[in-house]
Amino acid sequence: MTVKFYSGEKVPLEMHKVRIIQKLNLLSVDERLKAIKEAGYNTFLLQNKDVFLDMLTDSGVNAMSDRQQAAMLIADDSYAGSESFTRLHNTLQEIFGKQYFLPAHQGRACENILSTVYVKPGSYIPMNYHFTTTHAHITKDGGKVVEIFIDEALNIESDHPFKGNIDIEKLKNLINEVGAENIPFVRMEAGTNLIGGQPFSLENLRDVRKVCDEHGIKIVLDASLLQDNLYFIKVREEACKDMTIREITREISDLCDIIYFSARKLGFGRGGGIITNNEEDMRAMREYITLYEGFLTYGGMSVREIEAIAIGLEETMDEEMISQAPLFIEYMANELLKKGVPVVTPPGGLGCHIDAKAFLSHLPQTEYPAGALTAAIYIASGVRGMERGTMSEARDEHGNETLANMELVRLALPRRVFTLSQVAYTVDRIAWLYENRELIGGLHYVDEPKVLRFFV
Ligand SMILES: *Cc1c(COP(=O)(O)O)cnc(C)c1O
Question: Do 44 and 178 lie in a common domain?
Answer without folding.
Answer: no
